[in-house]
Amino acid sequence: MKPLLFLAGPRAYKRIREKGLGPDDVRLVLGASGAAKWLGIHGLDVAVFSDFLTGSSRPVPFFGTSIGAWKLAAATRKDPRAAFDFLAHAYMHQFYKKPVRRRHVDQEALRIVDAFLPPGAAREILSHPKFRLHLSVIRCNGALASENAMALAWGLGMAFTVNWKGRSQYIRRFDRVIFHDPREESLVNGAFNGASSVPLTPENFRSALLATGSIPFLMSGVPEIPGAGEGTFRDGGLVDYHPLPPEELEEGIVLYPHFYPEVIPGWFDKRMPRRRASAMDLADVLLLAPSSEYVEKLPFGRIPDRRDFKVFEGNDAARLSFWKKAVAESRRLGDAFLEALENGRIEDCIQPMGMDA
Predict the structure, then answer these.
(1) Neighbour-count burial for 331-345, b at 16+ CB within 10 Å, e otherwise
(2) Closest among 51, 107, 117, 115 to 89, alpha carbons compared
(3) Residue 182: pLDDT above 90?
(4) Is the dihedral of CA 64, 68, 73, 77 positive or negative?
(5) Which one of 17, 98, 303, 307 has the fewest beta carbons within 10 angstroms of its own beta carbon?
(6) How confident is the model at residue 356 (pLDDT cuts 50, 70, 90)?
(7) With helix as H, strand as E and coil as C, how does the chain read?
(8) What percent of the chain is predicted at pLDDT more than 70?
């Protein structure tokens, strides 16, 4: 059984087949939204960020939204392996009693962030010798800025209608704000036309990280992040659910550790199969994802999901058992990635995107 898929866009496929893959080939790493799904590739992330990318001789920019940004923040700590473990432990140990209110989820989000980003962590991340963190949030105004359920529902309903008509119109409807490592502006300038850019600082780091994961209805928006101006800031996954790479990028590989073998660009695209990213959208991407055979062997035949809080309602022990098993098994994904690199046969492992996985 092959636990890990190596799916390559056309330019990435050609490059890796001819030259193999080393850490200096990576020009960008992407991290997707997906809540608890990230637990399913915990071991893969540890291998990528703790063992592989640390060998790069040049700065590597990271870009993520929601939990994808949270895990990339963990990856940018001095000891990413320990930071990933802290994040996983804190995330798994969320407990809620009915009725679950928005403030309860807000409190748990604060607890998780504080667990893997203690005092001083922001300065550590923003002085990392190799890694450069970027994350996206959405500045909301009008109905989308409201915490009133009916007003927010109306605002999201309008956004859904616009998205149905076309993604380009949908993107223009939102004010994307890209928080970035102040040492790295080239990615922002070249990839997010029309977006606002705000340097990350120790003063706004925590608020920006909370905002990128602030799922509408489930969590409160974050008001007035230092340096970003007025507005209510919400989940960057509204636009960049599974972020796409920029069209213009220095020649090299975009590395995408992902929990699915497909990329869904926007939050409202989840039930729109025609909106899946094409191989040409991901031309420079090497996407690493669990194989269907691997997933089928997990408890319940799937990876963790935020809906498990409802599935296992009243039985946190069963949820924790499932999630811990998925995290433990995911080490095999990391081992498969490192083995392909160490035996020098990664070019034989990759397959072109679009082939049956």
Answers:
(1) ebbbebbeebbeeee
(2) 115
(3) yes
(4) negative
(5) 98
(6) very low
(7) CCCEEEEECHHHHHHHHHHCCCHHHEEEEEECCCHHHHHHHHHHHHHHHHHHHHHCCCCEEEEECCHHHHHHHHHCCCCHHHHHHHHHHHHHCCCCCCCCCHHHHHHHHHHHHHHHCCCCHHHHHCCCCCEEEEEEEEEECHHHHCCCHHHHHHHHHHHHHHHHHCHHHHHHHCEEEEEECCCCCHHHHHHCCCCEEEECCCCCHHHHHHHHCCCCCCCCCEECCCCCCCCEEEEHHHCCCCCCCCCCCCCCEEEEECCCCCCCCCHHHCCCHHHCCCCCCCCCEEEEEECHHHHHCCHHHCCCCCCHHHHCCCCHHHHHHHHHHHHHHCHHHHHHHHHHHHCCCHHHHEEECCCCC
(8) 97
pLDDT band at residue 151 using 50, 70 and 90 as cut-offs: very high
Report field, pTM of the whole predicted structure over 0.85 = yes
Token pair belonging to 183 = 């040492």
Please, are residues 296 and 40 in contact by the beta-carbon 8 Å criterion? no
CA-wise closest residue to 288 among 244, 354, 350, 240: 350
What residues have CB less than 8 Å from 202, skipping those under 6 apart? 122, 123, 126
Q: How many residues does the chain have?
A: 357
By CB atoms closer than 10 A (0-12, 13-18, 19+), residue 196 is: middle
pLDDT tens, residue by residue, 185-241: 767 665 666 788 899 999 999 999 999 999 999 999 999 899 999 999 999 999 999
Cβ neighbours around 220 below 10 Å, total: 17
Q: What is the pLDDT of residues 256-282, one digit of tens each?
A: 999 999 999 988 888 888 889 999 999
Which residue has 């408890």 as its token pair?
A: 299
CA nearest 75: which of 108, 26, 29? 29
CB 79 within 8 A of CB 131: no
Residue type at 333 in one-letter notation: L
- What contacts 9, CB < 8 A, 6 or more positions away? 279, 280, 281, 282, 283, 284, 285, 286, 353
| Amino acid code (one letter) for 324 | K
